[in-house]
Design brief:
Layout (H helix, E strand, L loop, with lengths): L8 H10 L17 H4 L4 E4 L7 H13 L1 E3 L6 E3 L3 E4 L5 H6 L5 H7 L16 H16 L6 E2 L1 H8 L6 H15 L4 E2 L1 H4 L2 H9 L1
Parallel strand pairs: 1-4, 5-6
Antiparallel strand pairs: 2-3
Amino acid sequence: MSEDLTMGDDDLIEAELFGYRPGAFTGASRDGAPGRIREAHGGTLFLDEIGDLPLTMQSKLLRAIQERQVRALGSTQEDTVDVRVVSATHKDLAADVQAGRFRQDLYYRLNVIQLRMPPLRERSGDLGAICDAVLDRIARDAGVSPAPRLSDEAMAVLTGYAFPGNVRELENLLHRAVTMAASELIGPDDLGLGEEAGDEDRK
């Protein structure tokens, strides 16, 4: 018999990762859910912003990775999974380990191969290709064809901007630009970066 749970943040994360049985908590689907880890069986699970995972969930994730076993909320049965885990974070996890905010054993379990992705401000040569890819996705999601494109002037503004919010800020800027643009060609004014870009130029 499953226990009826009042869902907290950790429970919601656990349900998302490990799944849940019908009736495991108030409002649980009558069909239950397999969870992300089980859905990724035989493939790759991407965990974004792993540094934000609560300590209690870090322990459960470590156990799942080490033992290759997951148990859904409300279940007594453990299922075997074969999953490659790829994670990303904007945080300095080594510093978080020292500060006690991230489990050392999970850090070393995840940190088998480390790839540093330079911030946008260090990748100006890639910015055009990244913008095109983001604009293609925005247009595809919105059912728009052809996808909007940046004018040379707009591209110059973006190239001179430092992007403190990195790729997420770029995506937000382009979403706004697509909404504001009066045509398929996005101009510098559509970016809404007048004052911010000027501030960056003065630094």
